[in-house]
User: Fold this.
Amino acid sequence: MAAHAHSETMETSGPSAIAAGGNGQKIDTRRLMSRRIGWWIFGTVVLINGLVLVFAGAEHRQNKEEYELRAELLTQNLAQAIDQSISTKIEKIDLFLHMVAQELERQLSTGGINKELIQSLFGKQNKYLYEASAIRISDSEGNLILDGDGESPQRSYAEREFFAYLREHPGSSLFVSKPVKGYLTGRWIVPFALAYHRPDGAFAGVVGVGVQIESFSDLLSRFDAGERGLITLRDSDLGVIASRLSGSSGRLPVGDRNVSQSLIKRVASGARQASFRAAPPFDGYRRTVTLRKLERAPMYVLVGLDESNYLAPWYREMPWKASYLAIFFLLTSLSAWALWRIWLRQAKSTEALRAAHEQLARVASVVEGSADAILMRSLDYKTLIWNPAAERMFGYTAAERIGKTSRFLVPPEFRAEVDRAHEILDDGRPVPACDTVRLTKDGRRIDVSVSRFPVKDANGRLIGASFVYRDITERKRAEEALRKARDELERRVIERTEQLRHLAVAATLTEETERRSIARDLHDGLGQTLHVIRLKLDSLAKTVPEASRHIVRALIDQIADASRMVRSLTSELSPPALAELGLSAALRWLCGEMERSYALEVVVDENGPEPRLTRAQSAIVFRAVRELLINIAKHAGTQRAWISLRSVDGALRVTVKDQGAGMRDPAQALAAGKGWGLASVRERMTYLGSTMDIRSAPGRGTTVTLDIRVEAQDEAIVA
Assistant:
C-alpha cells in the first residue's frame, strides 16, 4: 500500500512539477522579453535623439556657413566696388598724363617744349585732378625741367623707381609706383608716371603726378565694412597705402607689411581674387577677408568683416535651438516611457502579440516587395498575375482581371506603341523602360513608368511577359513645378535686367546733371571772376607809367588765355548744344572740337528729322560718338571721318565711319576695351536696350553702327 501510494503520488506530482517548470520558463521568458523591449526602446530613443542632435548640429553648422558665405559675397562686392572707384581715378590720371605727353611729343616734333603752353595744360589740373599734387616733367637724364607751379628746381628724378623703369622700358604704359615722400611737402604720395618720346622714338623724359595718400584714404572711407571691419589698399609688396579700420580713428602706417601668413600665401599663388578667414597680427580680430588685385595698378584691396559681427545672429540662435532640442529630448523620453508601459500592460498576451507581429511582418514584406504594380501575361495575352499594388493603382481586383487581357488599361492614342512593345517581347527581347499613361477603373489617367521583360522557363522557352508599373504622378508634378520655377526665374531675370537698365539711365542722368553743374560753376564763378579781373587790369593799364604798361598787358593776355581755357573746359564738360538744341547740334559742335584738338575732319550727314531722345539717351549717344572719334584720331591713322544719323523704323541709327588702318579682330578689341572704350560703348548701348555693330578689316577702315531704341519721354523721366 505504501509503495502504491508512493507511486500514485509520483504520478500525480510529476505533471504538476512539469507544469510549474513550464510556467516558470514562460515567466522568465516574459521578463527577458520585457527587458529586451525596454532596452530596445531606450536604444531607439537614444538613436533618434542622437540623429536629431547630429542633424541639428549639421543644420546649425550649415547656417554658420551661410553667414560666412554672405560675408564672403559682401566682401567680394565691396572689393569690386573699391576696385572700380580706384580704377576710375587711375583712368582720369592716365588720360591726363597721356594728353600732356602727347602735347610734349608734338612740341618736340616742332622744335622744342613751349613751357607757357604746358603751363596752360597744368592749369586744368586743379579741376580735372583735384586730388593730385603738382605735375612735374623731367628730361631724359631725370632732371626736373618743369612743374605745376611754374618753377624749375634743380632736382633729379633719376633715382626714382618710376623713372628708372620707364627709361629702361620706353614703350610702357602708365607706371604706378609704391608710396614715396614728396621732395617739398614731405607727405606720402603715390607717383603715377608716363614716358614721352622724341620724334625719332627715343626716350625724352617722364611726365608724372603724385596722388596724396589722403585721397585714397578718403575714397576708402566711403565704404562701410561694419563694426571692426577692415579695408586696406596695399602695394605689390603688401605694404600699406591707405586703410580704414571701422570703429577706430587710427590708421595703419604707410608701408606697414605686418600681414597674416594666409594673405601671403594667396598673393604668392598669383590669385587675382581670393576669400579666406584670418586674424591680422596688428589687432588679432578674426575676419572673413577678400583679397582683390586691381585691374589698373599693381595694388591689392583687402576688405575684411569681423567674424563676431556678422555671426552675431548665429550666436543668438544657439540658446533657442538648444531649448528646442531639450524639449524634443524630453518629449521623446516621455513617449518612450509611455510606450514601454503600454507594452508591459500587454505582456500577458506576448505570444499572441508575437504571432500578430510575425504575421504583420510577413504582410509588410509582401507589401514592401510589391510596392510597384506587377502584371504577367501568357503568350495569348491573358493576365496570369495581378498583385495587390496593381489593385491599388488601377482599381481592379485580381479576380476581375485574372484570365483577361490588359489592353483595357491603354488609352487609344498609346495602343500603337503598346503593339510595338508586344512585338519586341514576343521576340524574347526586353523593352526599355519608358514613361507613359494608363487608365484606371474609374476612368482617370495616371502617369506611370513601365518596364517590360520577357518571361522564360528553365529551358529558356518564352512563356509570357511581365510588366512593372510605377506611379510617377508626383514626379510629373515635381517636373511641372520645376518648369514653372524655371519660367519664374527667367521672368525675374528679365525684370532684373530692366531694373539694371533703369539704374544705368539714372546714373547717366546724374552724371550729366553733375557735369552741367560743374560747367555752370566754372562759367558763372571762375569765368566771371576772370572777366572782372581783366576789366580792372584794362583800367589799371591806363593809369600806370608807360614803362610798366607792358607788364599789365602781359597779365591781361594771360587772363584772356585763362578765360578761353575755362570756356573750353566748360564746353567739354557739358556742351550747351546738347542740353539746349539736341543731339544733332551737339554732334556738329563736336566735329569742330575734333578738328581743333586732333586735326580730324568730321563730316555729319543727317537724313530727315531726328527722333526725340531722352536726356540719358542723348548723353550716352553723344559720349559714345565722341569716344569713337577719339579712337579714330588716335589709332586709325587718318584725318577724316564721317557721322551719319538716320531714322529707321522710329529708331535712331548713328554710324561712325573712317577709312583708316582698321582692325584685324573687332571681337578682341571689344574684349580688351577699357574705360569709355568699345566694350564700354557696347555695354551702355545694351543698358539702353540698343545695339552696337562693328565692321572692320585691316587697311579698309572701321564702321561702327549704333541702333538706339527711342523710349517714351514719360518712361525716361521716371527712370
